[in-house]
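Researcher: We plan to redesign the surface later, but first we want a full-length starting point. Tokens attached.
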């Protein structure tokens, strides 16, 4: 019945029936008016005609769809009754015959399951009975039988034809649906077909897994209800077009994002693509593919967050920072950038491990955030670099940078370990040119300057820094090449035993034989090498070279030690011990003949790690010297706990001691303290015989200086083998 209603709606069936009635009425009217030999119209015939007309009108106007498809069958007996009575009073068998055939055909077509044979009693009652009861009508007997048979036959044939058509159509639909269901059962997509009758005609079983509904929940649900209650994000026009069956997907934009309510009530992000297949016999509706894109959305949001956030600290990342700065600069606001780089972070990472390093970065980020003004943009640009964009005048930003550096340099407690690092900062302020990226780069340049400077940790950008920075960058790349080309040479400067005048060791001092320039002193490149990490490779070369040379000296120098300067970065390098071991092994130099010189700055960064490393070196039989003593923090306390052998007192003490008695006192005290701690004392930078005499007078053990010997290449060392006496004589 459902299918019947779909194929021929009740209204249409009633209209066809009504048309037949109309034909009957007109035919009846014609016979009433034009009956041969009649004097005037037959009043009964006229009334019957009017009644049939009314019945036809009723057939046309009543809302049959609301009464259901079977309701139009009510027209059948009515029609028969009237026609039959019409015949009774005024027989017009031809008209009636055609009419009956029409009624038969109509019944068969519109009500295929109504057996047309059921019409037979009506025929009998309203057609045959009058014919046989009224004597003068019997001439029509034969043709009425034919009419009856013909109309029943036509009705039955049409009915059967329609039933079988419907059956095959139903089977086709069922198999299509089964196939569709099978195809889409496990699909990630859910397929809907919106029928032209504005219901959900089909929904794939995968709807259960994706959205929690059973097929039964949604199938045949009115489309209007579905679209308005279960879908979010559709425009009024789209809903209208879907309901009207006129929806046409936009060109090139078939998949759109909406939300669909899960059976549990949760809204799920979906992507839907619709295709109007109303004209397609198999689909006969609007085919909609729906895909759950929640996972993709989450991923997209995640990627978005990742693209602009630093996962470790939760601060903005470089990309986001650049975007924000550009935005501020483009708006013409005065923006100051503070660029911060942590000093000594690498050693935390190397010695404490990445976990400790990460933790330190998080704590540093917290401190920066706490100090930064509320509206500042705070970012971690990568590694141990942070940046802040503030709408403050440059001098205020510089004070803020000072405060940040101070806060960052306070000690951190990480898993019960106390860690201390430093920080350098550069400050730049937006100018009329308004280039956000340049502004960040200027702050970076200023930071770089601050890092190289010994005097300050904060530098405000000035354009001259740019060229200095460029020089540095160039120097760095030149240096890299020089290391691989081994453009270096070692000079050695003897250390003289003041009591005997003999020299007990030499300090190796590197020089760069720069092609076209001549010898470049270490002061011009060690800083850059240290800063860029190139010192590790360069230092390895120096170690090997120094050991190789010392091992090759003649037998009478077999007790002479060679001292190698190791810079802070190189000292922290995890490969240092292996590098030293292999330098000793390949040269054959005895470990006792190697002295490693480090400066106090190495100890300041992480005393515990430094102590561990120094002890490891000591275990290898190597001697240790503390270089430039008195220029750094000069805490004598740590000297007590660390395994040093030689205390190298900075040359500034001797310069001042010759002019200022109070400085001589200081020098004397340092020397005595060194002795008390069991250290051999060495004074650097003796340039005059007075200075030599002075330090000898206070019992300093060893001395180095131009007065005794300038640093020179190894093969020249024999020439500078002068005793203190000879020199003193010369001076005298
Ligand atoms: P340093 O280790 O304190 O070396 C002593 C510096 O003082 C040397 O400078 C030496 O030439 C200089 N000097 C020696 N006697 C006198 C003197 O009587 N008067 C004056 N005014 N100076 C004197 P140089 O060779 O230019 O080295 C400078 C610094 O560069 C060194 O200071 C050291 O820190 C570093 N350096 C030198 N060679 C190396 C190296 O192979 N590796 C590392 N990491 N650093 C090195
Ligand atoms: Mg030295
Ligand atoms: Mg020194």
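Model: Full-length starting sequence:
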């Amino acid at each position: 019945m459902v299918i019947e209603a779909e194929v021929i709606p009740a209204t249409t069936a009633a209209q066809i029936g009504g048309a037949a009635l109309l034909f009957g009425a007109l035919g009846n009217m014609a016979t009433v008016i034009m009956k041969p030999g009649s004097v005037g119209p037959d009043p009964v015939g006229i009334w019957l005609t009017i009644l049939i007309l009314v019945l036809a009108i009723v057939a046309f106007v009543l809302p049959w769809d609301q009464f259901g498809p079977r309701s139009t069958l009510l027209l059948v007996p009515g029609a028969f009754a009237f026609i039959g009575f019409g015949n009774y009073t005024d027989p017009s068998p031809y008209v009636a015959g055609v009419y009956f055939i029409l009624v038969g055909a109509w019944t068969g077509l519109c009500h295929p399951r109504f057996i047309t044979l059921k019409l037979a009693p009506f025929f009998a009652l309203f057609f045959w009975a009058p014919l046989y009861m009224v004597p003068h009508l019997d001439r029509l007997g034969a043709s009425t039988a034919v009419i009856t048979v013909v109309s029943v036959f036509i009705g039955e044939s049409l009915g059967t034809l329609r039933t079988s058509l419907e059956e095959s159509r139903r089977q086709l639909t069922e198999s299509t649906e089964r196939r569709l269901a099978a195809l889409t059962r496990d699909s990630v997509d859910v397929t809907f077909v919106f029928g032209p009758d504005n219901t959900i005609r089909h929904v794939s079983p995968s709807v259960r897994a994706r959205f929690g509904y059973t097929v039964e929940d949604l199938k045949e649900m009115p489309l209007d209800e579905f679209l308005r209650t279960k879908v979010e994000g559709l425009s009024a026009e789209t809903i209208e077009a879907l309901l009207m069956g006129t929806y046409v997907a936009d060109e090139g934009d078939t998949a759109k994002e909406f939300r669909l309510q899960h059976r549990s009530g949760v809204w799920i992000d979906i992507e839907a693509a619709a295709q109007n297949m109303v004209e397609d016999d198999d689909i006969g509706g609007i085919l909609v593919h729906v895909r759950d894109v929640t996972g993709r959305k989450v991923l997209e949001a995640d990627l978005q967050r990742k693209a602009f956030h630093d996962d470790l600290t939760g601060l903005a990342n470089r990309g986001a920072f650049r975007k924000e700065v550009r935005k501020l600069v483009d708006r013409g606001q005065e923006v100051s950038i503070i660029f911060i780089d942590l000093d000594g972070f690498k050693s935390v990472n190397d010695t404490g491990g990445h976990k400790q390093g990460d933790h330190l970065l998080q704590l540093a980020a917290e401190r920066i955030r706490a100090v930064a003004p509320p509206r500042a943009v705070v970012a971690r640009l990568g590694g141990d670099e942070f940046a802040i964009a503030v709408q403050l005048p440059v001098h205020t930003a510089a004070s803020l940078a000072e405060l940040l550096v101070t806060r960052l340099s306070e000690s951190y407690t990480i898993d019960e370990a106390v860690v201390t690092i430093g920080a350098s900062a550069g400050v730049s302020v937006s100018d009329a040119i308004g280039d956000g990226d340049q502004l960040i780069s200027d702050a970076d340049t200023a930071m770089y300057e601050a890092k190289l400077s010994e005097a300050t940790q904060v530098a405000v950008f000035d354009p001259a820094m740019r060229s200095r920075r460029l020089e540095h960058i160039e120097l760095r790349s030149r240096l890299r090449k020089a290391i691989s080309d081994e453009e270096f040479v070692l000079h050695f400067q003897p250390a003289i035993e003041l009591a005997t005048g003999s020299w007990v060791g030499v300090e190796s001092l590197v020089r760069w034989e720069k092609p076209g320039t001549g010898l470049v002193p270490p002061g011009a490149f060690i800083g850059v090498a240290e800063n860029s990490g190139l010192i590790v490779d360069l230092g390895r070369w120096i170690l090997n070279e120094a050991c190789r040379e010392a091992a090759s000296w003649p037998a009478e120098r077999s007790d002479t030690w060679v001292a190698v300067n190791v810079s802070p970065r190189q000292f922290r390098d995890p490969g240092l011990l292996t590098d030293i071991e292999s330098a000793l092994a390949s040269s054959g130099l005895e470990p006792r003949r190697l002295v490693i010189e480090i400066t106090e700055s190495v100890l300041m960064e992480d005393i515990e790690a430094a102590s561990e490393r120094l002890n490891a070196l000591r275990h290898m039989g190597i001697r240790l010297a503390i270089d430039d003593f008195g220029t750094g923090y000069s805490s004598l306390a740590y000297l007590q706990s660390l395994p040093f052998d030689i205390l190298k007192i900075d040359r500034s003490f001797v310069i001042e001691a010759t002019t200022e008695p109070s400085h001589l006192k200081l020098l004397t005290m340092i020397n005595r303290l060194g002795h008390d701690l069991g250290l051999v004392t060495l004074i650097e930078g003796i340039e005059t015989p007075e200075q030599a005499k002075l330090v000898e007078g206070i019992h300093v053990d060893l001395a180095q200086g131009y007065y005794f010997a300038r640093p020179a290449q190894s093969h020249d060392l024999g020439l500078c083998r002068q005793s203190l006496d000879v020199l003193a004589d010369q001076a005298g």
